[in-house]
Design a protein that fits this description.
It contains 13 helices and no strands. It has two domains: 169 residues, no CATH class; 89 residues.
């Protein structure tokens, strides 16, 4: 996710809407009014907040929910209500502002080659850019979005000077000194939380890569221990990935019961994960049960592969192994 990008776009949005907000009669006198920028930055992070809160409580569906259009539509009246207390815009305008802020988050994620399922739960098709339009390196990302914010800030200051020179200013009571500093402190806290989360995620990614390296070197016990370290908040792997690798490791360690447990867990978290479906079918096809039982257990996953993954490059290889196992075992 564009860690710094979401914050900069939230702050830029606040600058863009501020002149029009000042123009529309008297601004809201609500206590929330001086914290418009804070609200828009929080709304810019909202899909990730939902996702990480869900992962903290082991609810892996939160990632799909938080980054779906359905969530944006459902939460936009609430965000609109808050923005309506902070601006002079109509309720409809505030709802649209909140909705567009959340949806723009998803667009930025996709442009950073992050797989998203915007039409969840109606479709689990992943959307992601084949080209990384937004750099994943935090320094390069910060420079890109810092430049974007700088351009918006220059436009905002130029617009203010232009209106001041023509005498077309809006004599609205501004926020107090305490309110100004309170918003600055809140924004700093939000950025610190985001940076801390990023730091923890970076550590998890490093451990995950070590685990993969041990896995490919067939050091399965070491790999399993590292995967267990990764499998905690904040989550970094795509849904079902960690459980899948644990399942495969237990297959290699000849623990079919634990292998089935983790492969089923992986499938529950991501029902479109081809390798999980294939290995589940293969696990059941090679079990020590009777041939009829093995065929019955493997059948749903074989059907799933034939229906949805017949064009996958590894489809034929899996089917060959499964059919041979069903034919030659017992």
């Amino acid at each position: 996710m564009p860690l710094l990008g979401h914050a900069f776009t939230g702050m830029a949005t606040a600058l863009i809407v501020t002149p029009q907000n000042q123009k529309n009669a008297a601004s809201s006198q609500s206590l929330l009014a001086p914290f418009l920028t804070t609200s828009l930055v929080i709304f810019s992070y909202l899909p990730d907040i939902v996702s990480q809160c869900g992962l903290f409580f082991n609810w892996y569906g939160a990632r799909q929910l938080g980054h779906s259009i359905l969530f944006a539509l459902l939460i936009s009246p609430a965000t609109g209500f808050i923005l309506n207390r902070q601006t002079s815009f109509t309720k409809k305008q505030c709802i649209l502002l909140g909705l567009s802020t959340i949806l723009f988050h998803d667009l930025l994620d996709i442009l950073q080659s992050t797989d998203r399922q915007p039409f969840w739960p109606f479709s689990t098709t992943n959307f992601g850019s084949t080209l990384t339009v937004i750099p994943t390196d935090p320094t390069k990302e910060g420079l890109l979005f810092g430049l974007f914010y700088g351009v918006v800030l220059a436009w905002y200051l130029h617009r203010g000077r232009k209106k001041s020179s023509t005498g077309n200013t809006y004599n609205q009571p501004g926020p107090t000194l305490i309110q100004k500093w309170s918003e600055k402190i809140l924004l700093i806290l939000i950025m610190l939380i985001a940076l801390t989360t990023y730091h923890l995620r970076t550590q998890r990614i490093h451990t995950f890569r070590q685990a993969l390296s041990m896995f490919h070197q067939q050091h399965y016990s070491t790999s399993l221990a590292l995967f267990n370290k990764v499998d905690r908040w904040p989550g970094i792997a795509k849904p079902g990935r960690l459980a899948y690798f644990k399942g495969v490791i237990y297959i290699k360690l000849h623990h079919p019961v634990l292998a089935e447990k983790y492969l089923l867990l992986s499938y529950h978290r991501n029902k479109n994960f081809f390798w999980c479906i294939g290995d589940l079918a293969l696990l059941y096809a090679t079990s020590d049960k009777s041939r009829s039982q093995r065929m019955s257990m493997a059948h749903p996953y074989i059907q799933r592969m034939r229906r949805d993954f017949s064009r996958h490059p590894d489809f034929q290889q899996y089917m060959h192994k499964i059919q041979n196992s069903l034919t030659n075992y017992k």
